[in-house]
Amino acid sequence: MGADEQTIEPPAERAAEAPEAATTTAGATTAAAATASLHKYPIAPGYRVNVRSGPGTSYRIVRTLPLGMKVPIYCQKPGERVTGPYGTSNLWCNIANGQFISDTYVYTGSDGYVAPRCD
């Protein structure tokens, strides 16, 4: 996978796709509150990463992440083995509905899973 292998969506779209809602102090449930509490991981410095529709470079490119982007990781799954700035791995991160990037382009502080496995 090259330096331009993955992508992410604008904050408004991410909020709409939060995996679970959070309850506000008033008791209202909002996806925005859930997204605000979700940890975001930085993409490797200097890389514009293509976001794929599945866990491999043969899947179509959905978009490309800009430099300096941070992404949520909702779940992870094995896929194509890829080498990137953070090593070689077959682990792919789901950053939005139907959007995956190689874990080798995301600084998670771990060589393994940091989120639940995708179904």
The largest beta-sheet arranges its strands as 7-8-9
What distance separates the N and C termini?
Answer: 24 Å
| Proportion of beta-strand residues | 25-35%
Number of helices: 2
- Give the quaternary arrangement of the chains: single chain
User: Please, how many domains?
Assistant: 1
* Low-pLDDT ranges: 1-33
Query: How confident is the prediction overall: mean pLDDT?
Result: 80
Shape call: globular
Radius of gyration based on Cα positions: 14 Å
Q: What is the number of E strands?
A: 9
Main sheet overview: 3 strands, antiparallel
Tell me the series of helices and strands, N- to C-terminal. Answer: HEEHEEEEEEE
In short:
This protein has 119 residues and is mainly beta.
What does this structure look like?
It holds the Pfam family SH3_3. This protein is mostly beta strands and 119 residues long. It has two helices and nine strands. The chain has a three-stranded antiparallel sheet, with no helix packed on it. A two-stranded antiparallel ribbon has the order 1-2. A two-stranded antiparallel sheet has the order 3-6. It starts with 10 loop residues before the first helix and ends in a 17-residue tail after the last strand. The N terminus is likely disordered.
